[in-house]
Design a protein that fits this description.
Elements (H helix, E strand, L loop, with lengths): L4 E10 L6 H19 L3 E9 L3 H9 L4 H18 L6 E4 L3 H16 L3 E11 L4 E3 L17 E10 L5 H10 L4 E2 L1 H12 L5 E2 L1 E2 L7 E2 L2 E6 L1 H6 L1 H4 L7 H7 L4 E5 L3 H15 L7 E4 L2 E3 L14 H8 L1 H11 L6 E3 L1 H30 L12 H22 L3 H22 L1 H6 L4 H22 L4 H11 L45 E3 L8 H6 L2 E11 L7 E6 L3 E6 L7 H4 L3 E5 L5 E3 L2 E3 L2 E5 L6 E2 L11 E2 L1
Parallel strand pairs: 1-2, 1-12, 2-3, 7-13, 12-13, 14-15, 16-23
Antiparallel strand pairs: 4-5, 4-6, 6-8, 9-11, 10-11, 17-18, 17-20, 17-25, 18-19, 20-23, 21-22, 23-24
The protein binds ligand ME8.
The site of ligand ME8 has 19 residues, from strand 1, helix 1, helix 7 and strand 12.
Length: 631
């Protein structure tokens, strides 16, 4: 039986650095899950916070000539500001320097020690401070940390150990009995291989420095930062005192983490909990890693993406949408300005934005009172309805499997169908014929009802845009009180309170001039007059020669026969090698004003469809003389 609560966590982030797009990613993902489960009517506890102890934080504070608490206080403000800018709906924010956390850590330690699983020994090994991890000589890679590649130092000290070696079989058994505990599958296999290769007892205290929680029986030691940090998931729900809250929310439903810290969550944490006699979390999901324009993010490369800049430039909703749509959750992804702009323009502005704009303009113009009846749906309307209901079912399934990108692809499949439905029905013609008024009403009802559904499905991902869409639809209720289970087709409010003015919810974003590429993406939705089309001269040209443009990995310079010879620069190098184009007959816009790209004058624009790296140029079926006009 499923309990009616849902507990989701993000990692607690170190305060030695400013938040970046990677931190935003995990937290936005957790927020989508939290909002989704609230729509399911569950009592949600969504936790994020900061990890403030350990050598790494102590060192960062020293470098900035602050004490560790001051550094942490500053960084906490940064994180909280970011979460507010990204509309993160966390129910709590935990800091490991809070007294309630020290109490929880001590209690966890006592329980584990009480079972005889902690002993005092001596430690000598290689320590990587950035990773806060000890390594054996064997584990080092070229004398450096095998995880991050940075230098390590030899440390020898008295230390308390956790008998991790006793947990190898128990963990393997647990993974076997709970095949969905670690996700995605590929990462689960990595963890299993790691555990199978043998587990050493784990040093869980440090005597060499003091920035941490003192070990209960020996205050000369502080608790190892990972034992300390992992316990945050218990502290935040009132462990050990508030047993009612602990019983309600523990075990956590899902810990969302990056792949960098999966081992701590999938091996150490379950072992600590087993030792303490506490239930294990239900799922650990490790997502992939973001790079920036193909490179690792790092201060020295000066390519760290500040999510606040993204919010300022693209807005909260577009930033959230991009992060979850661009990359299948679990895989690595790459950020670029161009990628976010293209997502915005193709999915949001052209596709959804156009659907919203067309529907609302027609509805508000033809039914200014805001009263529309469902009427007699024909087969085409019934199809839209059943597709919508199926999308909703699939979305709930996808989100319960943490497949954000799949959920979004499902919604957009429906948006595509709706745009096609409008193109086929052509409601603007119905609007001109008074005899078709009832039919027009049914069509617009279907579209408005679809948009109401779409707003709710988008709400976990883009809460602001979804709420604005509801407002544009004239639904007065606040969207966060919506529930999946109460969402039924045909319950559009009887009277819609149209807003005074239609707002463009998803504006297009123009690329800076120097980045613009000569690829025309054919859009199916906007309407123009024939005379507009005639202004555009499309001609067939034969490619005579092609070469890459130096220092522009996406551009090709083409020499073409257009009746006369011309040079055209096209942004298709990610999809075509020069030799594959020579001899092809393609289509260009031939009366476009010439423009310079990377210093080369382009005398036309190549027509193509799709996004890099899957751009396809338009070709002609059969032989035609170069320069033939396309009509
Ligand atoms: O590890 N791509 O904190 P942390 C994707 N305090 N996600 C990224 C990322 C990237 N390039 N960079 C960071 C810690 N992340 C510990 C956690 S939990 C009990 C203690 C995200 O500040 C991702 O979620 O180094 C990763 O796991 C986390 O930030 C690491 O944050």
């Amino acid at each position: 039986m499923s309990k009616n609560s849902f507990y989701v966590t993000t990692p607690i982030y170190y305060v030695n650095d400013r938040p970046h797009i990677g931190h935003a990613y995990t937290t936005v993902a957790a927020d989508v899950l939290a909002r989704f489960h609230r729509l399911e009517g569950e009592e949600v506890f969504f936790l994020t916070g900061t990890d403030e102890h350990g050598k790494k934080v102590e060192q960062a504070a020293q470098e900035q000539q602050l004490n560790a608490v001051e550094l942490a206080n500053n960084q906490v403000i940064e994180f909280k500001n970011l979460w507010s800018a990204l509309s993160i709906s966390n129910d709590a924010f935990i800091r490991t320097t809070e007294e309630r956390h020290a109490r929880a850590v001590r209690e966890l330690w006592r329980r584990v020690a009480g079972k005889g699983e902690i002993y005092l020994g001596e430690y000598e090994d290689w320590y990587c401070t950035p990773c806060e991890t000890y390594w054996t000589q064997m584990q080092l890679k070229d004398g450096r940390c095998p995880d991050c590649g940075r230098p390590v130092e030899k440390l020898k000290e008295a230390s308390y150990f956790f008998r991790l070696s006793r947990y190898q079989e128990k963990l393997l058994q647990f993974y076997k009995e709970n095949p969905h505990f670690i996700q995605p599958e590929s990462r689960r296999n990595e963890v299993i291989r790691f555990v199978e290769s043998g587990l050493r007892d784990l040093s869980i205290s440090r005597a060499g420095f003091h920035w941490g929680i003192p070990v209960p029986e020996n205050p000369k030691h502080v608790v190892y930062v990972w034992f300390d940090a992992l316990a945050n998931y218990l502290t935040a729900i009132g462990f050990p005192k508030d047993s009612q809250k602990v019983n309600k929310f523990w075990p956590a439903d899902i810990h969302l983490v990056g792949k960098d810290i999966l081992r701590f969550h999938a091996i150490y944490w379950p072992a600590f909990l087993m030792a303490a006699g506490l239930p294990l979390p239900k799922k650990i999901f490790a997502h992939g890693w973001w790079t920036v324009e193909g490179q690792k993010m790092s201060k020295s490369l000066r390519n760290v993406v500040n999510p606040l800049d993204l919010v300022a430039r693209y807005g909260t909703d577009v930033t959230r949408y991009f992060l979850l749509r661009e990359v299948p959750f679990g895989l690595d992804g790459d950020y670029s300005e161009k990628a976010i702009r293209e997502r915005n323009n193709s999915d949001l502005a052209n596709n959804l934005g156009n659907l919203v704009q067309r529907t609302l303009t027609l509805a508000q113009r033809n039914f200014p009172e805001g009263i529309l009846k469902k009427g007699e749906p024909a087969e085409s309307e019934q199809k839209i309805q059943s597709q919508g209901e199926a999308v909703l079912r699939q979305l709930r399934q996808d989100l319960s499997e943490v497949a954000f990108h799949k959920a979004l692809i499902g919604i957009w499949g429906w948006v595509d169908s709706l745009n096609r439905y409008i193109d086929q029905i052509q409601p603007w013609f119905l609007a001109k014929d008074p005899n078709q008024r009832v039919r027009l009403e049914t069509v617009l009802y279907t579209l408005l009802e679809s948009l109401r559904f779409i707003a709710v499905t988008l709400f976990p991902f883009m809460p602001g845009a979804a709420q604005r869409l509801w407002k544009q639809l004239g639904v007065s209720q606040s969207i966060d009180t919506a529930r999946w289970s109460e969402l039924r087709w045909g319950e559009l409010p009887e009277k819609l309170a149209w807003p005074d003015k239609l707002e463009n919810l998803f504006p297009r974003m123009e690329a800076p001039m120097e980045e613009k590429e000569e690829v025309a993406v054919v859009s199916q939705n906007s309407q123009i007059e024939l005379s507009d089309f005639k202004k555009v001269e499309l001609r067939t040209v034969k490619v005579l020669a092609a070469k890459r443009v130096p220092e522009a990995d996406k551009l090709l310079e083409l020499r073409v026969d257009a009746g006369e010879e011309r040079t055209v620069v096209a942004g298709i190098a990610t999809s075509y090698s020069p030799e594959n184009l020579v001899g092809k007959t393609i289509v260009i816009v031939s009366n476009l004003k010439p423009r310079k790209l990377k210093g080369i004058e382009s005398q036309g624009m190549v027509l193509a469809v799709g996004e890099a790296p899957n751009v396809k140029v338009l070709t002609v079926d059969g032989e035609v003389p170069p320069g033939t006009r396309v009509k």
